[in-house]
Structures are given as structure tokens and as C-alpha cells.
Amino acid sequence: MKKLEGSFIFLFLVLVAVGIAFEMLFRWELLVLFAIGICFLFTSRKEGIPKKKARSRLFIAAVFILISVLLTATFKIGLVIAGIFAVYYYVSRKRAPQLLMVKTKETAENLNPRNTFIRNQWFGNQRVLDVVYEWDNINIQTGIGDTIIDLGNTVLPTGESVVLIRSFSGKIRLLVPFDLGICLEHSAIFGHLQYDKESTVVQNDTIKLYSDNYETAPRKVKIITSVVLGDLEVIRL
């Protein structure tokens, strides 16, 4: 199922890209905008050009190319289809969730702490079980899917640790030991926030709260989450 979803998404992106290219060929105004953007892009990479001028030309190139793409009907149709797919996937996950698992543990002596232990995944499901690594701040991006982060199996350092999660659609569940101080900052276009058995509807809001023991706890965790369409659940163990 995971490979099938990945193949479908890849094919969809290819079709959208091909459709945009063909549409530009038959709409001279879009082709002109795109060509101007490409010209600015190449001139920004000339040798000897001042960095400030190069950045300005690169910005102008990005604006022209982006406008030429956004004005195509293919892009708009593809965006609508992607939105419908995201909503459908979110509703289906609510019925039968399959979760991305990230379990943390204290490092082994022979482990290289520079190893990458979490891979960002935009679509589909992934399970990472019994992964051993030295604690470091968590910074992940997910597209469509649910995420579980269990902080109960690691020894956090004294002070404040950071968990940063950006997601498009899906549920984020955080399992946090009760003795940790929590600073939570959650932003969502639409979804729910559940903390200490209290549920709050989030509609284009940013909510920031602290646990009762945040000031006195020797070990703290700062949780920053940004979700377009999805829920956040913080469970204190």
C-alpha cells in the first residue's frame, strides 16, 4: 500500500508538471514571464556580480517563475485535487489510524551521534522501532500522516530540550513523562488540541501554554507544532 501511494503521488506530480509545461507553450504571456524569470536566474549566477545584486536578481527570477506557474489552470486544478486528497486521507486516518512511531532511547557507547535517526516523510506510513541514538533536539517535517513521539524511553539532559514538528495533515501524539516541564506552542488552521484531558478546537489560532511544574522542573521540553489540518494530543505518563 505504501509503495502504491508513493507511485500514485509521483505520477500525479509528473502529470501536473507536464501539464504546466504544455499550457505555457500555448499561452505566450505565461511563457514570456517564465522566460524572463529564467533570464534573471542565469544572470544572477554570473561571475563578478555583487552578492546584493545577485540576491535581488534571484528574488525577481523566483517571482516571475512563480507567477507564471500559479497562473496556469493546470496548477490550480492540481492544487484542488491535492486538497481533496488531503482531506480524504485525513478523514480515513481518523477512522483507522496507522501511526509513524519515533521511540527514543539512551545512546549506546559505539553509536555515532551524528547518524541521522529520523527521516522526514511526506506521504505514507513509517514505523521506526527500537531505534537507539543519543538524545538531540527533534526537528521533523511530515506531509500527510500521523506521528507519535514517545519521550518516555530516553534520558533527557538537564535544561530545556526542543521538539519541533511541522505537518500538513494528520494527528500528532506526544507521550511525555509527568516529571518533565512542558512549554507547548501549537499552531493550526483547523484541528483539535488535547492536553491534560481537556480538548480545545483550534481554528487558525496559535495556543501557548505551560505545565504547572515548568518553572521548577530540572528537565524541560519545549514543543512547537505547526499543522494545517490535524490534531495534537499531549499525554503525560
UniProtKB/TrEMBL annotation:
InterPro entries the record matches: Cell_wall_LiaF (IPR016975), LiaF-like_C (IPR024425), LiaF_C (IPR047793)
Protein name: Cell wall-active antibiotics response protein
Segments crossing the lipid bilayer: 7-24, 30-46, 58-91
UniProt superkingdom: Bacteria
Domain called Cell wall-active antibiotics response LiaF-like C-terminal: residue spans: 122-234
UniProtKB keywords: Membrane, Transmembrane, Transmembrane helix
Assigned GO CC terms: membrane
Species this chain originates from: Listeria newyorkensis
Residue runs in coiled coils: none
Source organism phylogeny: Bacteria, Bacillati, Bacillota, Bacilli, Bacillales
